[in-house]
Write a structure and sequence with these properties.
By secondary structure, the chain is an alpha+beta fold. The chain has a domain of about 90 residues: Immunoglobulin-like (Sandwich), CATH 2.60.40. Helix content is about 30%, strand content about 35%. An eight-stranded antiparallel β-sheet has the order 1-2-3-6-5-4-7-8, with no helix packed on it. The mean pLDDT is about 80.
């Protein structure tokens, strides 16, 4: 029995396994390592995306109300607090101080709309909703916060990211080249 063949094959497999481990380590997420130069503690939280419409929420023992501003239309969803069912045929009056007052019209069961041109500008609006549904009447208060549109930030890559990718690719290429050279050397040695 040729023990030299098995010894050589075992040593080669150990070298290949070692090369694979080093390649795996080289591909580790280098960008996750600690770095300096930034202060993450004092930054303001990012603004809400421009795709989400401003909302206001209010609830009492009888009603749950969500108001959403889309352009100059205030859409109001009114549900029974206890059963979470839409409240149909309610009379809803909404006002914000002396700047805005409107009667909401039902467009679907539990969904009402009101024209709200005065709320189109960015700012904080204290809204009062007067609700009359059957023999139940209630007053709900909510605040609608309309922020200025947020500009999209350009996605840019720092030189550190590109360096990490280039270094990882170089190490991976070197590892693959090492495996190929070792394999050829072993094949030539054992073919004679």
């Amino acid at each position: 029995m040729n023990t030299a063949f098995f010894r050589s094959a075992f040593q080669t497999s150990v070298h290949i396994k070692t090369a694979i481990v080093w390649m795996a380590l080289a591909c580790a997420p280098w960008s996750a390592w600690a770095h300096g130069g930034e202060d993450h503690g004092s930054e303001a939280p990012p603004a809400v995306g421009a795709t989400m419409a401003p909302r206001a929420y209010a609830q009492t023992e009888d009603f749950e109300l969500v108001a959403q501003l889309q352009g100059t239309t205030l859409t109001i969803t009114l549900d029974s607090f206890a059963t979470n069912t839409p409240v149909k045929d309610a009379q809803i009056e909404v006002e914000s101080g002396t700047a805005f007052k409107a009667q909401a019209q039902q467009i679907a069961p539990g969904v009402y709309t009101a024209r709200a041109d005065a709320l189109a500008k960015p700012g904080r609006y204290a809204l009062n909703f007067s609700v009359q549904a059957g023999d139940t009447a209630d007053l709900l208060a909510a605040t609608l916060d309309i922020t200025s549109p947020v500009k999209e930030l350009a996605h840019a890559h720092s030189w550190g990211e590109w360096t990490t990718w280039a270094l990882s690719a170089a190490v991976l290429s070197a590892g693959l080249a090492l495996v190929v050279v070792r394999r050829r050397k072993w094949t030539r040695k054992n073919s004679h």
